Fold:
Amino acid sequence: MTIFHGWGGQVRRLFAISKGPWGSNDQGGDPPEPPADGGKAPGPWGEPGRKPRRSTIITPAAGGSMIEEMLRRGRGRFGGGGGGDGGGRRSGPDRSLVLWALAGFLLLWLVFTTVHSISPGQRGVVSRFGRYSYTLGPGVGLTLPSPIDRVKKIDVENIRSVDLGSQGSNDLMITGDQNLLDIAYSVRWNIRTPELYLYELAEPDETIREVAESAMRSVISRVSLNDAMGDRRADIENQVAETMQRILDSYHTGVQVQGIAIKQADPPDEVNDAFKQVTAAQQDAQTYINNANAYALQLGQKAQGEATAFDKVYAQYKLAPEVTRRRMYYETMEQVLSKVDKTIVEAPGVVPYLPLPQVQKSRGGGQ
Structure:
């Protein structure tokens, strides 16, 4: 009990001391000002002076609490940003999310610009800084990212077609016999070397049209009108295809001509009816000639057969002339007499006339 009274007396003496840590100050005044020469003020218990710290006063924003203000300032220190009075930063997106989004975009950009899938019917032409570098085959190919390398896919198996001719009087062609011909045709082609097709010519499609028209005019000028309208169309198509391929190869176009198809080969519209009549007459004349040739061939084959049979009979006749002569006589008489009514009388005697045909007929009627 005495111990408790001793502790209580010490506590009363502690609270009864009115001297502050910086000297006698009954009312608890402010600490002394630092020296005017910029020195450090001594501590409250006589220790060496230290530079006083700048105090930070946390003042809650209007309508908020002290805890919310402390959380806001904490987010501002660690990248989240904070707003309000006292020099804090305004709130914004999280910096780490921006970095992750930027990294994801960079990864997708690298994948889509460096990995290229080429189908079996395609080729990938790679240009580096706008200049041709190499060509990718079918499959998956890797290149440098864009814009360093750029890949253009070209379909090399697709057969392209272009229709030419028969568009007006300007498309009429002159034949070798000085006749005008209205012709319509199509050109089938595909890409053989894609890098040449892309970089050697400014307008490859227009070049193909002009080369096809030039080759067709050149070939038509060496044939007659009847040949162009008749059976020589296939020959004309082959000549035009060969001429086109030779010219395109000299231009290094990288194009392969697959074929030419003539769809129409007629005279101009003004004289088309007259030419149709002439053509019909020519076809009729050719029909008559073909029939005559067929009949002549038939007679020739028949005569050849008879001559062969006679040669065989003559060979037998030389072996036995008398026998062969009699056999030929019997065969000839059999062929002649088999078609007429006749009565046979044996010599040297003569028998009375016997009307055998009438007897036979009577017998047949009686039966």
Remarks:
- The CA atoms of residues 249 and 255 lie 8 Å apart.
